[in-house]
Amino acid sequence: MPLSALATALLQPEDAGDGSAVFNIARNLGGSVGTAMLDTILTRREQYHDFEIGAYINAYRPVVQERLQTLTNAFVSKGHDSIVATQQAYAQMKNIVRREAYIMAFDDAFLIIGILLLIGAVMVWFCQKTKAKESLAAH
User: Fold this and answer.
1) Rounded CA gap, 63 and 40, in Å?
2) What pLDDT score was predicted for residue 136?
3) pLDDT at residue number 6
4) What is the pLDDT along the chain (139 residues), one digit of tens a residue?
5) 8 phi, psi to nearest 5 deg
6) What Å distances lie between residue 65 and 18, 72, 95, CA to CA?
7) Do residues 7 and 25 touch, judged by C-beta distance below 8 A?
8) What is the predicted pLDDT for the residue at 92?
């Protein structure tokens, strides 16, 4: 059964059009607000994870030095001089950090969505059943 029919089931027939309009406005507004909130969560969490990962990426760590040297050698083998290859290696490291931060931000967003869906599913159990046909027949 369509959601709009469920939302207007208990309304009088003359009020069903207005009820449907209010329901659609609320649905569209909820979708817009939800999308904006999800976009904000993704942006903020990406920034957070980028900062956290970036805190461990510095030129004094042997693992980072080794990775930069490997990337530099790969770019040199493609015909670039050592200065350009080093710049490209740093840019590649930055892209890797950004990619991983985005993945972690999406993980966070999916976790939040999952928790909200679980809360919604639990709330359904507490909803009372209504008998639409009996209530309409009484009017």
Assistant:
1) 33
2) 52
3) 72
4) 567 777 777 788 888 888 888 888 988 999 999 999 999 999 999 999 999 999 988 888 999 999 999 999 999 999 999 999 999 999 999 999 999 999 999 999 999 999 999 998 999 888 777 665 555 555 5
5) -105, 10
6) 66, 10, 16
7) no
8) 95
The sign one gets for the Cα dihedral 113, 116, 122, 127 is negative
The Cα 42–Cα 95 span in angstroms is: 17
Given a contact cutoff of 8 angstroms between Cβ atoms, the answer to whether 88 and 80 are in contact is yes
CB 71 within 8 A of CB 119: no
Q: What is the C-alpha end-to-end distance of the chain, expressed in Å?
A: 23
At 109, list the tokens. 């967003």
Q: Hey, CA dihedral for 79, 91, 62, 46, is it positive or negative?
A: negative
Measure the CA–CA gap between 41 and 105, rounded to whole angstroms. Answer: 8
Sign, CA dihedral 119-47-66-61, equals: negative
Residue 100: which of 64, 51, 40 has the closest Cα? 51
Domain ranges of the chain: 3-7+16-138
